[in-house]
Amino acid sequence: MVANRGYQSTGARTRLQLIEAASAILDEEGYPAFTVRRIAGKAGVKPQLLHYYFRSMEELVVIVFQRSCASYFQMHDEALSSPRPLRALWKLNCDLPEARRVLEYVALAKIYPALRAEMRAAGMRFRALQIEAIETVCAQRGITHPPMNAPALAALMSAVARNIVIEGNVSMTAAHDDVRAFMDQVLAAYEPRQPVNP
Amino acid sequence: MVANRGYQSTGARTRLQLIEAASAILDEEGYPAFTVRRIAGKAGVKPQLLHYYFRSMEELVVIVFQRSCASYFQMHDEALSSPRPLRALWKLNCDLPEARRVLEYVALAKIYPALRAEMRAAGMRFRALQIEAIETVCAQRGITHPPMNAPALAALMSAVARNIVIEGNVSMTAAHDDVRAFMDQVLAAYEPRQPVNP
DNA sequence: TATACTGCTTGACGGGTGTACAGTCGCGCG
DNA sequence: CGCGCGACTGTACACCCGTCAAGCAGTATA
Fold first, then answer.
1. Phi-psi group of B104: left, alpha or beta (phi > 0 → left; psi -120 to 50 → alpha; rest → beta)
2. What is the pLDDT of residue B9?
3. Pairwise CA distance, residues A4 & A134, whole Å
4. How many CA atoms lie within 13 A of B196 on its CB side?
5. Contact B57, B99 (CB under 8 A)
6. Cα A146 to Cα A51, A134, A135, B47, B129, distances in angstroms
7. Which of A54, B11, B29, B59 could bond A60 through an S-S bridge, CB–CB 3.0 to 4.6 Å?
8. Residues (32-91, chain B) with CB within 7 Å of strand D atoms
């Protein structure tokens, strides 16, 4: 038997290539380029192979999304485990590539109902984690009267970061620094601005 | 000469029908249905007429967007002229159909560069108006130390409202009431919650 | 050696997309 | 009447879309 370089078979390897190509396409060219032929082209593979490995585009897009989620979950988890979880979370929310991706999925969700369901589930999962983290921070730091309740802060961070991306998509950056400063001020009620000195 | 029912000619009337059909399609079915044939079908007209009146889909989408802007400008203006401009603005921002539309345009802007430019211009225009309105409110009510500066508040309102719509698109409503409550609390620093009694 | 299975290729289907352009109809005007 | 013109139609192009069925090479299994 031949060494299989970490893959169960060449088939699984091709499959992975397709998933990665799809992911890359979405990042680099956005939802309009998320098509059978473009993805296969990017993967250097015949378009029909896509239907050999995936029932349909809908199945593929869901898998790609779940993969995004998994990798995001790691970053998310690291952020929430860091010394200043809320600052880290906010920074993660502001991560451009990651936030852009969400918008592409939003567009695709209009076409693929299964993706819609998946996004809903993931969204609620992440929000719940964030709410929990915020409440933990409040408890640990003895913050009894935060500027807003935990769900509101979680939703606020998502909203502001996401809107910066949306507006950025049409080259609108006015007021972004201001709203960033505001968020910084809000977070200051929870966590110090500077990292704890070693 | 025949009475022309308010239109310069039947041609102009058909043209308007197409624009309205395009607008309706975008509202009812979203960006994926924004196609020559669907729009013409909705208008009850042969698809080729679309290219008789418009150079391309890009031209049409820009015109449709400008029309949206014009009608939105009216509402926007009324809101900012009302006794409690910020409350009215917030309510307008939360207007579902209107906010949904923006998302469809965002998706289309990925395809049509001209729309991108148009959206940028419009976005900056509206934001500037809002900032001005916020500053006026502060001046009139003697608010010298608002919770945040005017640009931040303007961006914040857009962001929060827009995110509610985005999440609503995937049936996510968790934390929305909370973040609404927070916005209400923020606005309370500027304007009373209840309308002034007559 | 025969069989079955995996991985992939070939070729094609039906339908949708935006766009182009020559032709036709009806009506007003000279 | 005849001309012109604006409104509209017929027909067509080239391309892209997702999907499917059949076949084929190589390997593993029996």
1. alpha
2. 65
3. 44
4. 6
5. no
6. 52, 10, 10, 58, 32
7. A54
8. 45-46, 48-49, 52
Q: What is the average per-residue pLDDT within B78-100?
A: 96
- Spatial contact of A126 and A194, defined as CB atoms under 8 Å apart: no
**B166, pLDDT greater than 50:** yes
Report the 10 Å Cβ neighbour count for A147.
Answer: 18
| Average pLDDT score over chain B | 93
Q: How far is the CA of A48 from the C1' of D20 (A)?
A: 10
The 3-state DSSP class for residue A109 equals: helix
Averaged over successive runs of 10 residues, the pLDDT of chain A (198 residues) comes to 43 91 97 97 95 96 98 97 97 94 97 97 98 98 96 98 94 96 97 76
Nearest by CB to residue B155, choosing from A116, A117, A176, is A176
Place of tokens 């827009």: B162
Question: What span, in angstroms and rounded, lies between the C-alpha atoms of B173 and B118?
Answer: 31
CB-CB contact of B64 with B114 (8 Å): no
Q: What's the first-to-final CA gap in chain A, in angstroms?
A: 53
Please, are residues B127 and B154 in contact by the beta-carbon 8 Å criterion?
yes
B151–A179 CB contact, under 8 Å: yes
Report how far residue A97's alpha carbon sits from residue A48's, in angstroms, rounded to the nearest whole number. Answer: 29
